[in-house]
Inverse folding.
């Protein structure tokens, strides 16, 4: 049996009867080698998924994931776990569709319980304009081959009676429902991919900050790290909120601003909210975790920052919005809040592409929606790294669209202003 062991019903029974003494670490803790075929910078969801698919789909084995802290300590463990495929624009819609299909098979694929819960997402609308845009979006989603339903006020009220339907400014008119959407346990996703990659021989190296990217003759040749230099034929950046800083190590300036996004959780309650619910008002969203906490959040903090904590003004806005839309939440005690650093692009869509430096690949710009993208991001980034061609589901995520202006995917129609997404 490998170091990670295998999960099975029989194994759980056996361990349960023998004091759970036979479990071993899920992945090795190797020393870095002097050279790899592929070095991935960033041990978050996207970096780990990339390593896994590079090994599983493309047969590469000499791979390292370099993580400056611990695996899963970044945004993959800080998000609010929402998974959905209800994007409107071509370029995004097929990518997130691909991702949801990968989510649906992920636990079997990894033999890991990621607590995938397809409890359905409701995107609530409040006025005629939002209703029309929502219907257009539902039609686009259905044309894409995914599920979408429009519910009007009375149907919605039967499903979720506890919302404030008669708020003066933001009365609730209906919602877009995607039943296959839901949540997954965020850090279990990182652990599952880490364990899967490790089983293929990928070296997962923690406490290994990348401090330099070595380039010779226009080609990447390796990285400098807190644990010494490492040579590499290919280097793949998957550093999420730190993408701008990491790319700068190779002399690149990215079209990315880093902003804080906060989230909040209450004390554990008995099950009260069955779905994920988002509101067009206040960018608000809420769901209930399997532990019982009500998990909610709203906008970005609206200024650039690398601090993984947020400001009071946005906390106040979020509390106002939740009290207005889901008044019962005001009876619960807030347990804690936290923040994460978002890599915001001008059009709110990501980048999976080559860079101007040969052998250096970029996966970035996930804004506040990269958790749901994790499987497809890893899958498509691995395809690009292994074949040097974009995956069919990720042809639009070009780095040069911000220079040429062609191919922008402005999902929210907010224009080229990072802080309005
Ligand atoms: C509060 C909040 C709520 C969110 N909610 C959702 C949601 O509901 N649904 C959704 O789809 N998305 C959501 N997101 C967004 C999602 O979490 C991110 O887009 C996604 O996790 C980013 O990809 P990642 O997992 O690879 O990032 P990370 O986990 O941040 O991985 C990047 C890693 O790179 C490492 N790194 C950085 N610099 C270096 C370096 N120099 N050397 C080595 N390693 C380095 C970091 O330590 C980090 O571990 C949310 C984010 C936040 C903060």
């Amino acid at each position: 049996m490998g170091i990670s062991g295998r999960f099975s019903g029989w194994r759980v029974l056996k361990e349960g009867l023998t004091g759970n003494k036979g479990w071993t670490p899920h992945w090795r803790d190797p020393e870095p080698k002097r050279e790899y075929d592929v070095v991935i910078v960033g041990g978050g969801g996207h970096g780990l998924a990339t390593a896994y698919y590079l090994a599983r789909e493309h047969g590469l084995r000499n791979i390292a994931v370099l993580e400056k802290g611990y695996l899963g300590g970044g945004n993959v463990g800080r998000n609010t776990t929402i998974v959905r495929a209800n994007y409107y624009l071509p370029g995004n819609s097929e990518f997130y569709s691909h991702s949801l299909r990968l989510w649906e098979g992920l636990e079997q694929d990894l033999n890991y319980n990621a607590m995938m819960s397809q409890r359905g997402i409701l995107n609530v609308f409040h006025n005629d304009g939002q209703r029309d845009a929502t219907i257009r979006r539902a039609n686009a989603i259905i044309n894409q081959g995914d599920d979408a339903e429009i519910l009007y006020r009375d149907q919605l009220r039967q499903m979720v009676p506890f919302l404030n339907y008669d708020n003066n400014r933001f009365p609730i008119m209906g919602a877009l429902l995607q039943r296959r959407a839901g949540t997954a346990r965020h850090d279990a996703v990182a652990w599952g991919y880490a364990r899967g990659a490790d089983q293929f021989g990928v070296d997962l190296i923690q406490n290994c900050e990348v401090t330099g990217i070595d380039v010779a003759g226009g080609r990447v040749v390796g990285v400098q790290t807190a644990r010494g230099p490492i040579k590499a034929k290919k280097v793949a950046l998957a550093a999420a909120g730190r993408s701008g800083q990491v790319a700068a190590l190779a002399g690149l300036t990215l079209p990315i601003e880093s902003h804080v996004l906060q989230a909040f959780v209450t004390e554990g309650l008995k099950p009260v909210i069955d779905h994920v619910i988002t509101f067009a008002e206040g960018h608000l969203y809420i769901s209930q975790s399997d532990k019982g906490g009500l998990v909610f959040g709203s906008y970005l903090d609206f200024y650039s920052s690398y601090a993984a904590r947020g400001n009071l003004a946005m906390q106040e806005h979020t509390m106002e919005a939740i009290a207005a839309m889901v008044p019962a939440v005001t009876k619960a005690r807030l347990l804690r809040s936290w923040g994460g650093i978002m890599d915001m692009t001008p059009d709110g869509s990501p980048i999976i592409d080559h860079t101007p430096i040969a052998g250096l690949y970029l996966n970035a710009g996930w804004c506040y929606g990269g958790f749901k993208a994790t499987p497809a991001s890893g899958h498509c980034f691995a395809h690009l790294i292994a074949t040097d061609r974009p995956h069919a589901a990720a042809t639009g995520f070009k780095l040069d669209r911000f220079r040429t202006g062609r191919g922008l995917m402005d999902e929210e129609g907010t224009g080229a202003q990072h802080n309005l997404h």
